[in-house]
Amino acid sequence: MNTTTLKSYGPRQFPDRAGLEVWQFERAQRLGLIPKPDMKDWRWSAAAFNDAVGRVDTIKRATGTLPDVGAARAEQYLAERFAMIVRPGTAAELARRGHLPVISEYCGHPLYCGLTLEAFRDRRKIERASAAGHLHMRDAAAKILGLRESDFDHLVRAGLLTHAATAEGLFDSEVLLYRQADLDRLSRSRRIDWSTVRATPKGHRSLLAKLPSKQTAV
Fold first, then answer.
1. Cα(213)–Cα(35) distance, rounded to whole angstroms?
2. Which of 115, 133, 151 represents a domain boundary (last residue)?
């Protein structure tokens, strides 16, 4: 901690001189443990700074030890902490179910609340989210449904199945990922004669080709 006294402190000087990581500082502001700037140009007075320094140990305990993280790191953290398999897509599924807040984003990807991850206690919620949110590439998703990839493409074209996430593929290509819960839901649909579709031999036109294409808004 830098004890040199300044007349005012900016958003980088404040955490640096108070001995706080930037993410701790930002979280402390979000929790109301550090007030909004009380001077012009988004700066804090020496009085506001000194008050926070006097409570810095309390602030560190309240802000926890895990910063807000992306999906992969959140899932790795839960896997290590609970000694269990946590599949890709679990963090997004926990957020979808209201168990894990999205705090912000980085390069278009969500950042999940580290404080909530640290406080997580319910293993069953993770298990359910891991099962439902598990993400699959197109070929794997088609196999789960017991379909040819051409059949699968007709389901997507018709809007009966939509990808839940994307990943970066080779040569900066975009890979579409499909959620297990969506595959399960679709497999229960009575709109499709699954046994007949699955029995269609290779080389034959897909019975799903007759499905109307999804209408897109102009």
1. 54
2. 133
